[in-house]
Amino acid sequence: MTARAAPTRILSIFNKYIERGGEEVAVEEICAALARHPAEFEPRELLFHSADWRREPVPSVWKKARWFVRNPTSIARLRESQSALRADCWLAHNLFPVGSAAIYREALRLGVPMIQYLHNYRPFSVSGYLWDGEKLAPGGLRGSFWQEIRAGAWQDSQLKTAGYAVVLKAMHALGWFEAVKSWVAISEFMRQRFIEAGVPAERIFTAPHFWRAMESPPAPRDDGYFLFLGRLITAKGVRVLFEAWALVEEALGSRAPRLVIAGAGPLEGSVRECCGRRERVEFAGHVSGEKKAELIAGCSAMVAPSIWWEPLGLVTYEAYDFQKPMLAAASGGLTETVVDGETGLLHEPGNARQLAEQVLALHSDPGRRAAMGANGRAWLVGNTNEALWLQRFDRAVEYALAGR
């Protein structure tokens, strides 16, 4: 890490979503990691909340539309924060809708370099996921948002999606993203997609999330079930999962391993219904804390059959922390965390038959499961430590500061 005469003052800017999710956790972890190194970094947070626009008095639709572009209250708070901290750079995460697009313009006006942390595919996707609700929508990488607009990919509204698309197009056309002096992608896969979209290769850095692994994982335990842990949406491959388990049950009947599905999301109703029709599939609902840890500790392996381009997939880290192998789709950043044949197995995205064959193979070979789990734990400890992440992130900071 680069030695500095004084710590770099970083203002971390994040617009919280209505529902707390993985990105919010990651933002908190990043700020905490920087704070643990006061000789190099002095971080401060500026938070906006999407829930504010649901509280009385609720802003009108037209006010929200104007404030999406430039929210005077948010810009005033930003100026106050900058005046107090005199930040050397701004670390941007999600800034919409309450933060507003004008934060980028404000950075240009003040000459403050921005670092854009890429948790998803904005600013080249209205939904943030290059996903139209049913399939990949990569057109945003080429400046076309029509697929996402037709599907109403943002907040289930064609009108809102179109409005957001217009704002993104205008930001690109007006050069507001030139405020971003360096970009941080959480996987090499993401980095390559952004280069395809036109971000200069020298300005985008890869820094996968770090993970604070347990010092001593629980003693290996295997209760004979496979575990899906994630948001219940089409992109996560929930339907592929049910198709695969139908094939597993067809092959083994009552001897088939159980599948436990844990999570919440728009497909929860249909997941409950499907679980009710299948003897070897059960729904655990949303889990966290000790209950979540107990589920992971007892599984044979975890399953991530995503059909969208996963930016990274922290569920793999969770599996490895408990010495569990991962069965994952060869999708996006998952290919960088699952070493096929060593820490788990990769299947073609959407290929339920291949996934079923992998489940049957692992189910019949407990020794292989144990070996893959041990390999996964070793991979986690060797590749996701905080010091390595900090070194990678520091390169992006240095590049941004050099471009002031």
Please describe the structure with a list of short key phrases separated by commas or semicolons:
12 strands, 404 residues, six-stranded parallel β-sheet, alpha/beta, 15 helices, single chain
Indicate the overall shape: globular
Tally of separate helices: 15
The separation of the N and C termini measures 20 Å
Strand order of the biggest β-sheet: 2-1-3-4-5-6
* Helicity range: 40-55%
For the biggest sheet, the summary is: 6 strands, parallel
Mean pLDDT: 95
Q: pLDDT below 50 for ≥5 consecutive residues: which ranges?
A: none
Tell me what portion of residues adopts beta-strand conformation: 15-25%
What Rg do the Cα atoms give?
Answer: 22 Å
The overall strand count is 12
Secondary-structure element order, as H and E? EHEHHEHEHHEHEEHEHEHEHEHEHHH
Structural class: alpha/beta
Can you tell me about this structure?
The chain is of the alpha/beta class and 404 residues long. Helices cover 42% and strands 16% of the residues. The protein is built from 15 helices and 12 strands. A 6-stranded parallel β-sheet has the order 2-1-3-4-5-6, with helices on both faces. It has a 6-stranded parallel β-sheet with strand order 9-8-7-10-11-12, with helices on both faces. Strand 7, helix 8 and strand 8 form a beta-alpha-beta unit. Helix 8 packs across helix 13 and helix 11 crosses helix 14. The longest helix is centred in the last third of the chain and has 18 residues. It is globular and about 65 Å long.
